[in-house]
């Protein structure tokens, strides 16, 4: 007998939040995550005497920067601390982004190699527009690591 599929089990990533840690130091919870991805750069080589096709050979992998956003919270100070540690020359960092349902169930996890902050932008505060104060951090990395099971 098969169990009926409920909307929660059919699509667990409808409402997710993202927890971010850098070397096991939490940067907190984010509600937006863009740019998780990579691109394989191809080199084209033509073979003499073969006019049917051009060889496309993988040469390197490029990783896009990741942009994380959230409303400003008390956890915002942790980002400033991390950026300060990078400026003072602290070594390579590994990072982990976990996508969680609103119930806290793990949907997916990405472990990142050599994470560095690229850009941070804080809220635009204006009495003319009563919006939620948000912040965005953009990070770069040198590749994905096998999941550590954290």
TrEMBL record:
It comes from the Bacteria. It holds the Pfam family Phage_T4_gp19. PANTHER family: CONSERVED HYPOTHETICAL PHAGE TAIL PROTEIN (PTHR38009). This is Phage tail protein. It comes from Actinomycetospora termitidis.
